[in-house]
Each structure stands twice: as structure tokens, then as C-alpha cells.
Write a structure and sequence with these properties.
This protein is an alpha+beta fold. It folds into two domains: about 5-235, 3-Layer(aba) Sandwich (Rossmann fold); about 245-355, Nucleic acid-binding proteins (OB fold (Dihydrolipoamide Acetyltransferase, E2P), Beta Barrel), CATH 2.40.50. Helix content is about 25%, strand content about 35%. It has nine helices and 25 strands. It has helices at about 50-55, 80, 100-105, 115-125, 140-155, 175-190, 200-205, 225-230, 235-240, and strands at about 5-10, 25-30, 35-40, 65-70, 70, 85, 160-165, 195-200, 210-215, 220-225, 245-250, 250-255, 255-260, 265, 270, 280, 285-290, 295, 300-305, 310-315, 320-325, 335-340, 345-350, 350-355, 355. It has a six-stranded mixed beta sheet with strand order 6-7-8-3-9-10, with helices on both faces. Strands 2-1-4-5 form a four-stranded antiparallel beta sheet, covered by helices on one side. β7, α6 (about 175-190) and β8 (about 195-200) form a beta-alpha-beta unit. α3 (about 100-105) packs across α4 (about 115-125) and α3 (about 100-105) packs parallel to α5 (about 140-155). InterPro entries: AAA+_ATPase, ABC_transporter-like_ATP-bd, ABC_transpr_FbpC, ABC_transpr_MalK/UgpC-like, Mo/tungstate-bd_C_term_dom, NA-bd_OB-fold, OB_MalK-like, P-loop_NTPase.
Length: about 350
Amino acid sequence: MAKITLDNLAHSYLPKPQSEDDYALKELNHDWQDGAAYALLGSSGCGKSTLLNIISGLLRPSQGRILFNDRDVTDAPTAERNIAQVFQFPVVYDTMTVRDNLAFPLRNRGRDEAYVAERVQEIGAMIGMEHMLDRRARGLTADAKQKISLGRGMVRKDVNALLFDEPLTVIDPHMKWELRTQLKKLHHDFGHTMIYVTHDQTEALTFADKVVVMYDGRVVQIGTPEELFQTPEHTFVGYFIGSPGMNVIPAEVNGATARIEGTELRLKRGYGDLSGKVELGVRPEFARLSRTEGLPVTVRRVEDVGRHKLVRAEVFGHDINIIADEDDDVSADMTHVVFDTDFVNVYANDWRVPGEAA
């Protein structure tokens, strides 16, 4: 296991980057705790796989250092870093049996055959392939091959870190849930440092202790699922986490008062006199329809999704979503929306402003 330190780390695929925009991975300074499970979450092209490949040693950063337990491994090859990596698409030895594929990392390190047999049987059961251990990998389905890749990544107990690059892409939905559960159990049992790259918020939030949200080559927030939901530090986090995402409405903010097209909203904290692009962010879960109080709203449609109603609406020309309980009244005379001010966040140029007690 290892604490992983990113020290002034940045990377550009250009030979002579001239500005920040030329960097696929913008400057990072973070310590990732020994034995924690992290998810790297973001949309395609945000830098997740670039960062993972730097950690694994497949890519040398243009700038800065990477340390394992305070040892500089920036120039160390992958083999010296003692990590296991599972890629998006399955990498297996077709001519070998499932058993021999799973055993390969252990035999390669000289482990005795009794231990190899025990560990392979254990991992085979974990990935649901104990009945197929003596079958050759050639001819197996893509999701079966990916389960072999996952198993080979998990078979060693002595690794510094386990790295997963969107490993469940080719796995059927039911098996995704099973394998995520197994990965969490593996982490609980053995305490490996785990880093899991995904663009799927459900995978990230159900797998990780801490989620690392990336946007445009930058880490914009590291937090627990609760922190990402209640206090998104960047508007992208608000958009990306939640279904539907956070409502973002342009506003003027002065002290503890926000003005939206001249209509005032009292805030729980004071923010001074903010300038630039100022917005309020509020989750659909913390908005409710009203007949008289709040901001004027136009309801466009109501979608009954079983557990709740999703109200699609508009406030001063800005689309918003409101989540109402299944038994809540939603009628034509409900022409206003009220926000729970305990959960209203204020943003200046996309970054959350903490504010002070009002």
C-alpha cells in the first residue's frame, strides 16, 4: 500500500507548451492517503486517464514529481512501482486457461504453487468464474475476459496500489453491481490504495471513500459523496453530480442578499459585493413549488418517475428542475418556487464562495 503524492504535477502532449491551455493535465498538488479508495470522475477528455497513466508509470509527466510513500518514482518504470492496473478493454492471454491467466502475476513473482492455487480459487469465486477455471480464454465473451483482467489485477495482496481505468465498460449492468461490491469488499479486507477511473457518477459514488472530480484537466474537488452533493466547489461538480444536476441561476449578490431580475432572496451567509459571473446553485431536491411565496416560475411539464415527480420549469428564462414528492400537489396555480436557503450555494466565476455568518 502507498500514500501517493502529486507534487507540482502537470502534463502536456505538446513538445513545447506555451500556456496553461496547452496542458492536458493542469498543475496538481495533492496527497492521496495510504489505503484509501478514490474514484477519478469526469467527462471524456478531462485528463483522468492521463493522470492514471502517470501514476502507473506508463507516462512521464512534463512537469513535477510523483511520490509513493515519499519516495520519488517519477522516473521509475511500472514494474518498480509495484502496482496492478486493469484497463478499459480486456487484456488476457487467449492460449492460457482462466486459471493460468489468474495465476500469472503470482507465478511471475515466484509464489509457491499451494498459495497460487488457493488464491486463484478465491479470486475465481469472487469474479463468478470458479466453474470456468480450466477453460481457455479464447472464445470467451468480452465481459468474461474483462472479469479475468479484474481478477488478475486483484490476485496479488502485496501491491502498492490497484488502478482501474473504466474497467466495467464491457460488463453487463447486473454484473457491474456485483463486481463493484466485490471491489469494495476487497478494499475493506486488504486495505489496498485503489484508484478507479470512470465517467459514471453511480460507479464513483458507490465505490469510493473520496471522489476526485476533474474538469478540463484540473481537479476541481475531492470529497465524499455527501460533500459533492451538498457543497459542490465548482459549478461543474453541481452539473455532473446528481440526476438531474444542480440548478444554476445568474444573480447579483451583495452581502446576505441575492437579486434575480430585481427579485430579492435572503441568504444564510454574507458574501460582500461579488463581481464577475455570479450565480446561485441549488439542487432540485431543495426547491419546492408555492402558490404565493418565492420567485415567479413557469412550469413546463411534470414527469412522474415513480419515486417522485420531476418538475421542469423556468425562472426568468432560465431552465430549472424541481423534485417533488410523489404525493405532493402540483397544480396550475403554483406559480412560485422557494429555495431552502440552508442549501443555496453562491458561485463567482464558477467557484463556490464560502461566505461568512450573516
